[in-house]
Design a protein that fits this description.
The protein has about 400 residues and is α+β, with helices and mostly antiparallel strands. It has two domains: about 260 residues, no CATH class; about 90 residues, no CATH class. α2 packs antiparallel against α4. The longest helix is centred in the first third of the chain and has 41 residues. The relative contact order is 0.11.
Length: about 400
C-alpha cells in the first residue's frame, strides 16, 4: 500500500475514534458526577476541587470507553468510505481488502498501547488519589456534613440525627444513630451528646458519646439486647463515608499496581485471591479488547455500505454490549471459582478475535452476510417508496 493511501485511511479512522472517545468520556464523567453530586454538594467543594476529581476519575472511565471508541472509530470510518464508493474504487484499482489491514492495525495498536499504559500506570494511581481526595474532602468539610435537625444517610447502612450541632467545637447534642452495617444485627444508639475527633491512622471519625443506650435486635427479631452506657466510642472509617459517593468506593484492588496484585496472589495463593487475579487479568484484557473489537469494524463497515452513521453507532454499541455481558458473566463465574480467571476474563477477547478473522475473510472474498445484503436492499426499497410518495403528493398538490 502506498504511503498516501495508508495515511488517508489512518486519518479516516482516527477522526471518528477521537470524537467517539471524547463523547463517551463526557457521558461517563457526567454519570460519575451524578453519583457524586449529593456528596459534593454536602461538602461544598470548590471548582478547582471538582476539576481535580474529574481528572482523577478519567483514567478508569477511559479504560472502559476506549474499546467502544475503537470499534466505533473504525466502523464509522469504513462506513463513510463504503458509502462514497471509495472501497469499490480501491478494489477496482487492484487494492484487496486485506491490504487495508496495516492501516487498521496501526490505529488499533496505537489505541491498545495507550490503553495498556493507562491501565497499568495511570488507573491504580488515579483511583488511589481519587479515594484520598474524597477522604480528605470529607475530613476538611466534616463540620459541613454535621447538620442538625435532619436525617443524614451519607454513610451506607448508617443514619444519623443530631438535635443540636456545634461545628466549631465539633460537638453534638441529642444523638440518634441507626446502624445496619452488620446484616445479622440492627443497632439503634441514643445518646445525650458526643464530641467528634479525627484519627489519621487508620483514617476514621470517632464519636465519643456519653449518657445513652444501645438497642440491638437480631435479624429474625427473635432476640434483642439493651445496654446503658456512660461513655461509648463509635468509629467510622472515612472510606465508608466516601464509598457511597464514589460508586461503591474504589475497591482496594483497583488502587493496587500490577506488582502489588502479583504480590498478594503469591502470598495468599490463587484460591484465596480470585478477585485480585481477576483484576490483574483485566488490566491487560481490556486494553487488548481495543484491538480485537476494533478489528470487527472494518469488514462490518463494508458490509453495511449504505448504512448511516446512526446505524454504525447502533452496531458498535450492540457489539460492545455483547462484549461487556460476556466479560461480566465471566467475572461473576470467576469470582465464585467456577471457571479459571484466564477463561473468565479472556473469553470475550477470544470470541471477538474469532469473529474478526471470519469477517475479514468474508470481506476479502467479497461475500457479505445475507443480513447485510437484505439490509441494503430494504434500505433502497424504503428510500424508493418514500420518494414515490413525495412525488405523488407533489402532483396531487
Amino acid at each position: 500500500m502506498k504511503p498516501t493511501l495508508y495515511t488517508y485511511l489512518v486519518k479516516e479512522q482516527l477522526a471518528p475514534l477521537l470524537t467517539c472517545l471524547l463523547g463517551l468520556s463526557l457521558v461517563l464523567v457526567t454519570g460519575q458526577l451524578i453519583q457524586l453530586i449529593r456528596y459534593l454538594f454536602s461538602t461544598s467543594v470548590s471548582s478547582f476541587g471538582l476539576l481535580e476529581i474529574i481528572l482523577l476519575a478519567l483514567p478508569q472511565l477511559v479504560l472502559y470507553a476506549l474499546p467502544m471508541a475503537a470499534i466505533m472509530g473504525v466502523l464509522l470510518g469504513f462506513i463513510r468510505l463504503s458509502g462514497d464508493n471509495e472501497i469499490i474504487a480501491l478494489k477496482a484499482a487492484g487494492v484487496s481488502f486485506r491490504q487495508f489491514l496495516p492501516a487498521v492495525l496501526s490505529v488499533l495498536l496505537l489505541t491498545t498501547v495507550f490503553s495498556l499504559v493507562n491501565s497499568i500506570y495511570a488507573v491504580p494511581r488515579a483511583n488511589k488519589a481519587l479515594q484520598n481526595k474524597l477522604v480528605s474532602l470529607g475530613r476538611s468539610n466534616l463540620s459541613v456534613l454535621l447538620r442538625q435537625g435532619v436525617f443524614i444517610d451519607l454513610i451506607p447502612n448508617v443514619v444519623f440525627f443530631f438535635k443540636e450541632v456545634n461545628p466549631s467545637a465539633l460537638s453534638v447534642q441529642g444523638i440518634f444513630v441507626q446502624d445496619q452495617r452488620k446484616r445479622e444485627i440492627s443497632a439503634a444508639i441514643v445518646a445525650q451528646g458526643a464530641r467528634i475527633s479525627y484519627q489519621p491512622e487508620p483514617a476514621q471519625i470517632v464519636f465519643n458519646m456519653h449518657n445513652g443506650s444501645i438497642t440491638r435486635v437480631g435479624k429474625d427479631l427473635d432476640d434483642s439486647q439493651n445496654i446503658l452506657f456512660k461513655t461509648y466510642e463509635l468509629s467510622l472509617p472515612l472510606d465508608e463515608i466516601v464509598s457511597k459517593a464514589a460508586t461503591g468506593s474504589r475497591a482496594k484492588r483497583e488502587m493496587m499496581t500490577v506488582s502489588e496484585l502479583q504480590g498478594v496472589i503469591r502470598e495468599r495463593g490463587l484460591e484465596s485471591s480470585y478477585s485480585y487475579a481477576l483484576e490483574l487479568h483485566k488490566r491487560f484484557a481490556l486494553p487488548v479488547g481495543c484491538l480485537f473489537l476494533g478489528l470487527l469494524g472494518a469488514p462490518l463497515g463494508t458490509f453495511f455500505r449504505r448504512a448511516g452513521r446512526m446505524t454504525g453507532v447502533a452496531i458498535a454499541l450492540g457489539l460492545f454490549v455483547a462484549y461487556y455481558v460476556l466479560l461480566s458473566a465471566g467475572s461473576g463465574l470467576g469470582k465464585n471459582g467456577i471457571i479459571p480467571c484466564f477463561v473468565a476474563v479472556w473469553t470475550p477477547n477470544l470470541v471477538m478475535l474469532a469473529a474478526g478473522l471470519l469477517l475479514w475473510n468474508k470481506a476479502h472474498q467479497d461475500s457479505p452476510f445475507k443480513t447485510a445484503v437484505l439490509y441494503d436492499r430494504l434500505r433502497e426499497a424504503t428510500a424508493g417508496w418514500c420518494k414515490a410518495v413525495r412525488l405523488s403528493r407533489k402532483h396531487e398538490a
